[in-house]
Write a structure and sequence with these properties.
This protein is α+β, with helices and mostly antiparallel strands. It has seven helices and 18 strands. The chain folds into four domains: about 90 residues, conserved putative lor/sdh protein from methanococcus maripaludis s2 fold, CATH 2.40.420; about 120 residues, Elongation Factor Tu (Ef-tu), domain 3, CATH 2.40.30; about 60 residues, OB fold (Dihydrolipoamide Acetyltransferase, E2P); about 130 residues, Orthogonal Bundle (Helix Hairpins), CATH 1.10.287.
């Protein structure tokens, strides 16, 4: 009998304890009780976010003026090189043959040029003599014509007086006509001599000019051939990093100065004296970006400057406006934040996914930036910073149309916490917290996550008309 009482009492105790625990568990259920928080006084930084790709200051495509087979490649991708460092060597046999051919062409052009000058000199001496000879023949013909004309006039008088015979008349007349024809021919000969002196002399001078041009072109071709022979050893023309190599040993490459293809690209060097991100900023945010940008970066105020000047101004801007530095992060180095300065805002909009965006060039400032080239970057522009304002978590805000409100805790008759709806006027947000302009004071409790009623409480509230 006692044993049954003990067992029955134990079971009853277990049931009571279970009910108490269940009741406590339901009371502390966060799904029912919600989560409280406080409106707090703090600072709010308003960022504008964007994405872009980290790029080198510029990329230089290396081509060779020489053609030939790749004999040796002296560098690898990622290697830093200085001006004058040997990058690639080509087999020089083809360019040596070209050099010999152009040297022979130069010899022929030089010989033709010398002959043209000699011919011009001969013409300058000979043509005036031919003109003088024609002038002398004309003077002789005119004298003979004058004498024949005089005799013919005399004979005509004699014929009228029957003093001269017909034979003498015919002879005198014939001599007159022959002398006149000789005079006319001499005049034509003189005109031809004068024309030849002018025309042939000009032609001889043009021959000299043409021969000189051919000689000059042959000299340039030879110089170019010498340069191409030198270019069989391809050297770096700028300091930088070998970004990619586009040829292989044993491959034939074409000159960049011959043919219509523009030559074979050998490799690309990345000038990493400056590293920047070209970010795409939504048109809705570009106004705020322009406000925080340096004067020299804004459209209408931009000026062309050297890289050294841009770097100096970026350092100066960071020292004067530390809070306006652009924060740059990349997935590859998640624990590190890099700083940048807006260097240029391009005025032309770009259409991205049916939305307008503006390209903003951000110069990175710091050390070891070359490791970032080619990586996708996330940028945060600090466009506004508010101090000592009332802040609440965004989860605590609710809206109905244009009205915004929050819920504050109130004690219910059941002993649980209820809620009271309060309208508020909000300001700006950073995505996590929102500024409260009016409606809630700092330190006031609010519901970050509203409590939920049990079915029984809901039924009681409905009966009470709440």
């Amino acid at each position: 009998m006692n044993r049954k009482l003990i067992i029955g009492g134990g079971i009853g105790l277990v049931v009571v304890v279970g009910l108490v625990l269940l009741t406590r568990r339901s009371i502390s259920n966060p799904w029912l009780d919600g989560e409280k928080g406080q409106a707090k006084l703090g600072n709010l930084v308003i960022p504008v976010t964007a994405t872009g790709t980290v790029q080198a200051n510029k990329f230089v495509t290396i081509k060779s003026k020489a053609s030939g087979q790749v004999d040796r490649i002296h560098v690898v991708e990622g290697q830093m090189v200085d001006v004058g460092d040997v990058l690639v060597e080509l087999d020089p046999v083809d360019e040596k043959r070209n050099l010999e051919s152009f040297a022979a062409n130069l010899d022929r052009a030089r010989s033709a040029y010398e002959k043209a000058k000699i011919a011009l000199e001969n013409q300058e001496r000979d043509l005036p003599l031919q003109t003088r000879s024609a002038e002398a023949r004309l003077r002789d013909a005119e004298a003979r014509y004058k004498e024949a004309a005089f005799r013919w006039e005399k004979v005509k008088g004699y014929l009228e007086g029957n003093v001269a015979s017909d034979i003498e008349g015919i002879s005198a007349e014939s001599a007159y006509h022959v002398a006149r024809a000789a005079r006319d021919l001499a005049a034509v000969g003189l005109e031809q001599a004068r024309n030849n002196e002018e025309i042939l002399l000009k032609s001889a001078k043009q021959d000299v000019v043409q021969a000189e041009a051919t000689y000059t072109a042959a000299q340039k071709d030879l110089d170019e051939a010498k340069l191409r022979l030198d270019e069989t050893t391809i050297r770096a023309r700028t300091n930088g990093m070998v970004y990619n190599i586009m040829i292989h040993q044993g491959e034939m490459i074409q000159s960049g100065t011959q043919g219509f293809t523009g030559g074979t690209p050998v490799m690309t060097l990345a000038d990493i004296s400056a590293v920047y991100v070209m970010a795409q900023v939504d048109e809705a945010d570009i106004g705020a970006i322009r406000k925080i940008a340096p004067d020299y970066a804004r459209p209408g105020s931009s000026t062309k400057m050297s890289d050294e000047e841009y770097a100096r101004l970026a350092e100066q801007y960071l020292n004067e406006f530390e809070g306006r530095a652009v924060e740059v992060t990349v997935e590859a180095y998640r624990g590190q934040t890099y700083r940048g300065v807006i260097e240029r805002i391009l005025p032309e909009p770009q259409r991205v996914n049916n939305a307008l965006a503006f390209n903003v060039r951000v110069r990175l400032v710091g050390d070891d930036l070359q490791q970032l080239v080619g990586l996708q970057a996330d940028l945060a522009f600090t466009t506004e910073k508010l101090e000592d304002v009332v802040l609440v978590k965004n989860e605590a805000l609710f809206s109905e149309g244009r009205d915004c409100f929050i819920y504050v805790p109130v004690k219910l008759s059941s002993g649980r916490w209820g809620e009271e709806k309060k309208p508020v006027r909000i300001g700006v947000t950073d995505g996590a917290y929102t500024e409260i302009i009016s409606g809630v004071d700092a330190g006031q409790e609010i519901w970050v996550r509203r409590p939920r009623q049990t079915e029984r409480e809901r039924q009681e509230s409905e009966k009470a008309g709440l």
